[in-house]
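Quick question, first post here. What does this chain look like in 3D?
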Amino acid sequence: MIRFLLDGSVLKRLVLPVVLSGCVATAAGAQTNPQTLALEEAITFAVENDPWLSGSRHTQNALNDEATAAATLPDPIISLTGSNLPVNSFDLNEAPMTQLGLGVSQMFPRGDTLALAQRQKQQLAQQHPLLRLDRQAKVTATVTRLWLDAFRAQESIRLIERDRALFEQLADAARAGYSTALGRTRQQDMIRAQLELTRLADRLTVLQQQQDSAQKQLSEWIGASAMAPLTPGLPVQSVDRRWEVVSVEQVNEQARYDAIASHPTLLALDKQIDATRTSVDLALQKYKPEWALKAQYGYRDEDLAGRSRDDFVTFGVSFDLPLFTAKRQDKEVSAARSRVEANRTEKVLLARRLMAELETASVQLARLDERRALYTDQLLPQMADQSEASLIAYNNDDGDFAEAVRARIAELNARIDALAIAVERQQTIARINYLLTGAPSGDSAPAEPF
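> Answer (accepted):
Ran it through. Tokens below.
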């Protein structure tokens, strides 16, 4: 009889018992292959070469320069005049009232308009360090997700490639047994073995498509280096310690808010709210008059008899009177206050969304931890034992070929599922860490969320 024989050592060699331990980690002290792309390298490159961050710095510099300009008085106005000039001769000394004038006037904006305009620009500029912090955290989470998507496809391909040799041996054994008409090998066994090889080829094609897609998306952030093979070890990320607050069941809403209160997007909205509050103060200044000081020096030429004439100096003050305020100043103040409330509403909505996303991610992580433990402690060992037992039974003419193949496929699927759980867990941790991104030192979160 011709029978395909595999001992238990071959089966166990194909099992990856550490795939759910948090990642398929490289050995301590191992050197990274320079031809591969590590997650840390991808994140560093993406953050350092993000043009948005450079644009944000330019915008902040522009706002700071505008703040300096906004606090400066308007330029004085110089005027040159010829007064009481006779039109018949245009002679400067013919008429006693003819004079040449040099005047200067200076406008003074209403109330504290200059100081408030400067403060508003500074408040808008203070948003950008917070927005850049959020952008860096968001880029880190995005690159991590894409890198892990590509890693999941790459490692799934590796798992299938390792098992494909076994299925090829099964197919060869089935064909050999069928061609010699010995043993219990049937035509459907040979067909089943070839069918599984075809299915594996299709799965490899789909996984390669997924890997290519993820790497192409990753190239948006790191360029052509995204197409390099990824390091084989799945990186282990630690969860921010504040996650423990929301990981406890039945935690109250204030505790959830406290966990995300220092998120840079919320603090940036606080700066926006401050700027709109300053708009209210600016609108209130329009109830005050705008002043202008004027001074003019008038030069008179000698009269027709050659006698000198006195020159004149003129001083003046002008201002407007905001008397009709119902349809202008009142409406502008009301509009500015409405914008403040609109921004406060936007903050409430953002805080609720962040809290909901954090709670959702926390629940997902807890369930993924449960599944990881289930696969590590029970499912993977049981699948390996079942596969080994089915193959041994078939080798001993006590089992069905189809059952042996099904057991091997089930074990392979379990290992791929275990890898998917490990990758999804790391992606969830990356999302939680983004939601728990803290503010830089010197920025404090408000005590009340709403």
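Strands lie at 77-83, 99-108, 291-299, 312-319.
Residues 338 and 373 are 53 Å apart (CA to CA).
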